[in-house]
Write a structure and sequence with these properties.
heterodimer; A: 112 residues; five-stranded antiparallel β-sheet; B: 113 residues; mainly beta; seven-stranded mixed β-sheet; 11 strands
Chain lengths: 112, 113
């Protein structure tokens, strides 16, 4: 699979702060995805991006598909304790490549 | 309720003792896959299946087997488990291979001693 570089590896923030994480790749992807994994659970899809430059929001979450198609970022505004978890980016080549290539994850801790 | 069900959730076994982790989905999805999750490495794909009787290797297939005799089931088989296969395993399914939304099971934590 393709190597994705996700940063930061972990974040420890206070409730109410904004959070930003990003993912870069040496390869071009046709789709970028952001997943969240709660402790003891499987990953759940948060946002899917299908077009270069696309900016998509889902409540307090905003994600963008980079113009070069080699990067994406996820922002969380006004964080709350239930935002705690591991966030994964994933890229999919599409067409001939269906596998999801995952980043190594960003572990987010939010203190009240 | 649409879901992907894995069993068991936790398993401790000894080196060399064959085991099977089951995965079942009730969404009539064509595409199913297995991942392992290790600290600092994220999720890596082991095997995937595009449809019944169609399986292929992912990034880390060594030491694993799969089968897809029915659409809903995709078991992961470890013929001779070794300690380096101690990991957290996830099964996932999606409508088709080209569909981006993959639904994940709750995971199986395997320890091989």
């Amino acid at each position: 699979g393709q190597q994705l570089n996700q940063s930061p590896q972990s974040m420890f923030i206070q409730e109410g702060e904004d959070v930003s994480m990003n993912c870069t790749s040496s390869s071009i992807f046709n789709t970028w995805l952001w997943y969240k994994q709660d402790p003891g659970e499987g990953p759940v899809l948060l946002i899917a991006l299908y077009k270069a430059g696309e900016l998509t929001s889902n409540g307090r979450l905003t994600a963008q598909f980079g113009i070069t198609r080699k990067d994406s970022f996820l922002n969380i505004s006004a964080s709350i304790p239930s935002d705690v978890g591991i966030y994964f980016c994933a890229g999919q080549l599409g067409n001939s490549g269906y596998a999801l290539n995952f980043g190594k994850g960003t572990s987010l801790l939010v203190t009240p | 309720e649409a879901q992907v069900t894995q069993n068991p959730r936790y398993l401790i076994t000894v080196t060399g003792k064959k085991l099977t982790v089951t995965c079942s989905q009730n969404m009539n999805h064509e595409y199913m896959s297995w991942y392992r999750q290790d600290p600092g490495l994220g999720l890596r794909q082991i095997y995937y299946s595009m449809n019944v009787e169609v399986t292929d290797k992912g990034d880390v297939p060594e030491g694993y087997k799969v089968s897809r005799k029915e659409k809903r089931n995709f078991p992961l088989i470890l013929e001779s488990p070794s300690p380096n296969q101690t990991s957290l395993y996830f099964c996932a399914s999606s409508l088709t291979g080209g569909t981006t939304e993959a639904f994940f099971g709750q995971g199986t934590r395997l320890t091989v001693v």
